[in-house]
Specification:
heterodimer; A: about 475 residues; alpha/beta; 5-stranded parallel sheet; 15 helices; 19 strands; B: about 210 residues; 7-stranded mixed sheet; 7 strands; globular
Chain lengths: ~475, ~210
């Protein structure tokens, strides 16, 4: 019987299997950031253990780093607790080493899930782990990539293996052309709206179909990034020419005769035609409109032309209660048209949508227009120093600045508000990030997840608008 | 790792679905480089009326009287009863750390977020899956003051203290074994060091570019 892409990736990394199916899975790439690693390095030290293969580690500081004040150097990190965490990573890398470390202020620093692929440090066929749930992003390259906890970070450092069990195979197939103004973000939000935030729990999800194949690598990363918001630890896309073209010439991509050898093996990273999936979901791309979340979970999502749903129409009592609580938190009334919702802030960034293509799309919408007067801050946070440099080369920073957006330094920023960028209680934000949980962007803050185009249009209008009618 | 064998504990019900790890332990507390000290900030945004920041004297902060864990009857609870998809969201292991450091030793729910479920086992904190109907009936019973449950990992049962009701739960044999014996997982894996080394050598030959 044929094997799925996930089956192939799994099979090629199993070192040892117990009777109950618990396996030791070999890890090729270990991405490390400052928030989930200090306790792991400490554990290693306390037990007197050494890292197994430090050359697998690619590290950066991204969660705590400020997006302004870089001219002040390390003192730009004003919060002493944040500073200690960033310094601790530097200290640990100095002591243990790494394949490469992009510290705060380095030109190549950025969000770990942006820089891995950008550097060619994420390659097809790899197993990739990171103490971060959005590691699923790297599955866009035909990798088995998933987020792990800090104990697992320590375990991978010490043994180069993860103790894990095989997940179910799930395939989400999206067919057909995307409409104008509809993006990868809208695809994945629509998928989550359909299957729910636990729809992929226990599964590795392969995204397939003509719509996914037509996406750029940036788009595929956006889709895989949010697999975890559907509950799936890993999302993935088969390798094709788009994957290969993206990787050619990147810093850590293979070169010379090894390149051809590598490409030949990568081309086999797809699901066999007769492969069987435990769960299949199909979507028609033509039915996907720009999406906006209205509640406090990514599954609480509607199309831009819709209104805030009415909990009274929900039959499931637990779900209804969740909706009612979300509406109170979000300060919204049922049946309010989404486009009537006024905003306070706009955030364009995060490991979901901060790559060059995202910034180009947002800039195209903003060009020649001004941010609305009710918007207190509209900020653009590039995913990495290299994305920022490329955007500046293309003049996108000027477009944003002239429109009234703030052009910031790279990092995770207001996706989770561990640095100084955050919402104040009650503030409402159109955000290109991945989570609209209570307090995610700041205690009491209200997050609506959208695509970069939709966020830019909302900044200009001051409320949500249908970007499909944007001229 | 701490052992888990049998627990007879007071039950606290948290009646909401999809409790995410941002709610369990908000991000401002993730700036710590330590493994301890998260208990006072468990469910911080729900538990207190003010906005919590690291370094605050939590004993002096105003408690939210409507939040279930602030009710006197649940003081000392060791078992958290929760709804579906508990612990969804981020990979932060600070979530099970916070629950454990608050005093919980076990959480019972119809389903869990995958990473949270995994992280819990690594800390000797037991996540138990029961059916939605079973969890429903436990929620109903937890209305009785002093409601306790006995969680027996060896027998894989959750029973009422008087033994009148008992539910079976599933857990992987390897995880069960590790928890019952409080094993150091890294130590266990390193028993396979030769296998890992051999696998790695083959992989290096086959895909040298992965090791550059």
């Amino acid at each position: 019987m044929g094997r799925t892409l996930y089956d192939k990736l799994w099979d090629s990394h199993v070192v040892h299997v117990e009777k109950d199916g618990t396996a030791l899975l070999y890890i090729d790439r270990h991405l490390v950031h400052e928030v989930t690693s200090p306790q792991a390095f400490e554990g290693l030290k306390l037990a007197g253990r050494k890292p197994w293969r430090i050359g697998s580690v690619v590290a950066t500081a991204d969660h705590n780093t400020p997006t302004t004040g870089w001219d002040r150097g390390l003192d730009g990190i004003v919060d002493p607790i944040s500073r200690l965490q960033v310094d601790t990573l530097t200290k640990n890398i100095k002591e243990y080493g790494a394949k490469v470390y992009f510290p705060f202020l380095d030109k190549r620093q950025g969000i770990v899930h942006v820089i891995g692929p950008e550097q060619g440090a994420t390659l097809p066929g790899m197993t990739v782990v990171c103490g971060d749930s959005h590691t699923s992003t790297h599955g866009a390259f035909g990798c088995l990539a998933h987020g792990i906890g800090t104990s697992e970070v320590e375990h991978v450092l010490a043994t180069q293996c993860l103790v894990t069990k095989k997940m179910k195979n799930m395939r989400v197939t999206v067919e057909g052309p995307l409409g104008r103004g509809v993006t990868a973000k809208d695809i994945v939000l629509a998928v989550i709206g359909r299957i729910g935030i636990a729809g992929g729990t226990g599964s590795a999800v392969e995204f397939a179909g003509s719509t996914i194949r037509a996406l750029s690598m940036e788009g595929r990363m956006t889709v895989c990034n949010m697999a975890i918001e559907a509950g799936a630890r890993a999302g993935m896309v088969a390798v094709d020419d788009t994957t290969v073209q993206y990787l050619k010439g990147r810093t850590f991509s293979p070169n010379g005769p090894e390149w051809d050898q590598a490409v030949a093996t990568w081309k086999m990273l797809n699901s066999d035609p007769d492969a069987k999936f435990d769960i299949e979901v199909k979507l028609d791309a033509r039915e996907i409109a720009p999406q906006i979340t209205w509640g406090t979970s990514p599954e609480m999502v509607v199309a831009v032309e819709a209104s805030v749903p009415d909990p009274d129409k929900e039959k499931d009592p637990i779900k209804r209660e969740g909706m009612e609580r979300a509406l109170v938190y979000m300060g919204l009334k049922p049946r309010t048209p989404m486009q009537d919702i006024l905003l306070d802030k706009v955030f364009i960034g995060s490991c979901t949508n901060s790559r060059i293509e995202d910034l180009r799309a947002a800039a195209a919408v903003a060009k020649g227009r001004k941010v609305a007067s009710n918007i207190k801050v509209a900020m653009v946070v590039p995913g990495s120093g290299l994305v920022k440099a490329q955007a500046e080369k293309e003049g996108l920073d000027k477009v944003f600045r002239e429109s009234g957006f703030e052009w910031r330094e790279p990092g995770c920023s207001m996706c989770l508000a561990m640095n100084a960028d955050r919402l104040e209680p009650g503030e409402r934000c159109a955000s290109t990030s991945n989570r609209n949980f209570e307090g995610r962007q700041g205690a009491g803050g209200r997050t609506h997840l959208v695509s970069p185009e939709m966020a830019a249009a909302a900044a200009i209008a001051g409320h949500f608008v249908d970007v499909r009618s944007w001229r | 790792m701490e052992k888990f064998t049998v627990l007879n504990g007071l039950v606290a019900p948290l009646d909401r679905a999809n409790v995410d790890t941002d709610a369990i332990i908000p991000k401002q507390f993730l700036k710590s480089i330590k493994r301890s000290g998260y208990g006072p900030n468990l469910f911080d945004a729900w538990r207190y009326l003010d906005i919590g920041q690291p370094g605050m004297d939590n004993a002096k902060r105003p408690l939210n009287p409507d939040f279930v864990l602030n009710q006197a009857r649940y003081k000392g609870a060791e078992i958290l009863l929760a709804r579906k998809n508990f612990g969804c969201g981020s990979s932060r292991e600070h979530a099970p750390w916070a629950l454990q450091q608050y005093g919980f030793k076990c959480v019972i729910a119809p389903s869990f977020g995958d990473i949270f479920y995994e992280n819990s086992f690594k800390n000797g904190f037991l996540p138990v899956v029961l059916s939605a109907t079973e969890v429903d009936s436990l929620f109903y019973e937890s209305a009785l003051p002093g409601f306790r449950l006995v969680v027996d990992l060896d027998r894989q049962t959750v029973s009422t203290a008087d033994g009148s009701k008992s539910y079976k739960f599933d857990v992987d044999p390897s995880r069960r074994h590790s928890l019952l014996n409080g094993l150091d997982e890294i130590g266990v894996t390193l028993r396979h060091a030769d296998e890992i080394r051999a696998f790695e050598a083959r992989r290096r030959d086959q895909f040298p570019w992965l090791f550059r």
